[in-house]
Amino acid sequence: MAVTPPKSLTRSLDVPAKLLMGPGPVNAPPRVLQAMTNPVLGHLHPEFCMVMDEVKDGLRYLFQTQAEVVCCISGTGHAGMEATMANLLERGDVILIADNGIWGERAAEMARRHEADVRVTKKPPGENFSLMELDLALAEHKPLVLFVVQGESSTGVLQPLEGIGSLCQKHGALLAVDCVASLGGVPMYMDKWGIDVLYSGSQKVISAPPAVAPIAFSDRAIKRVKGRKTPVRSFYTDILWLANYWGCDEGPRKYHHTGPVSSIYALREALAIACDEGLESLWNRHRLCSKKLSDGLANLGLEMFVSDPAKRVPTVNTIKVPEGVDFMKVIKHFMSKYRVEISGGLGPSAGKVWRVGLMGHNCTEDNVDLVLKIFKEALAEAGVTMSKL
Q: In whole angstroms, what is the distance from residue 241 CA to residue 235 CA?
């Protein structure tokens, strides 16, 4: 029997407008969406290669690096994590995972699939790692790679990075950092802090649609990749091939894959917006909006999941669900009445927290005021008063 055209595709696409105040993706600015309507070019046309070069320049600014190998993996933040594991690890290599949330768990799972010897140092959800703890773990496990998450979006924890790179160099390890949920929202100094592999995602603070994972490799990391005994298992994420395609080496660009042309346009515009604002302003805006949110929640009687303000990542704010409150009813109130998205917990925080994203285009005082207003309404509707919290 022949398959006929589906009736669902006989109508035009109709997507509702929503305010995305969860852990990502976030709403893209009109300028970014407009960029995607530009003519599609060939993935090696000189005009598109120029756009790619401008993206690299913008990423070097956000990463604060002069690394030669700065490019994008065609995929979301997970693709950046996968590329990190695929390029750095061979069978039996020791990797130490600093695990204080779901992204440490996910990194460990990926590393195991590359047949690495995975060691884990753990902290309870809501806590981060001290330099002393990491120093002791590095001395014990003697890894080739230490993996750390700067902004753990499942728990809302910020991991300080200064000093970790020096520890890794002392112990002969490479430092790989996930900054998917934090890049642009908190300080980042790849070179100054001695980070060897750094990756992020386009759909968080950068405020482009989800499609690409910015990534950078230090000279130390590239030396490691070039010194592998076996080929990188994933051709798609092979950083040496990608570096060539993105014009990061001296050779002529060769076809590796068809880059997501329209998504790169969007990323270019999003980076231009970030560069126009400047890093200090970006970081300060996220810090102030997060403080305004936490102060307002405290006035409602709600508590932050991360008790120490210094340990909170301002981009993904985690709020304790009070005892006896159905967290999903509150989430549904946000969406059904206002078409505003907030999220529940993930991994170790599932069922325990609400997560409110303050990232990039959506990180404004007006949006904070709206979120606080809806929380007050939703809690009242659930029969919760401030005195009960």
A: 8
The span from the CA of 69 to the CA of 51, in Å, is 16
The 3 state secondary structure assigned to 292-356 is HHHHHHHHCCCCECCCCHHHECCCEEEEECCCCCCHHHHHHHHHHHHCEECEECCHHHCCCEEEE
Whole-prediction pTM: 0.96
* pLDDT grade for 388, boundaries at 50, 70 and 90: very low
Which amino acid, residue 50? M
Q: What is the pLDDT of residues 155-194, one digit of tens each?
A: 999 999 999 999 999 999 999 999 999 999 999 999 999 9
**How are beta strands 343-344 and 94-99 bridged, if at all?**
unpaired
Query: Which neighbouring-strand residues pair with 71?
Result: 215
pLDDT tens, 227-254?
Answer: 999 999 999 999 999 999 999 999 899 9
187, HSE (Cβ side, Cα atoms, 13 Å): 8
Query: In sequence order, which ranges of the chain are alpha helices (DSSP H)?
Result: 30-35, 46-63, 77-88, 102-113, 131-141, 164-170, 219-226, 239-245, 261-277, 279-299, 327-338, 365-381
How, if at all, do strands 197-199 and 212-217 pair? antiparallel
* Residue 389: band (very low, low, confident or very high) from pLDDT cuts 50, 70, 90: very low
What 3-state class would DSSP assign to 274?
A: helix
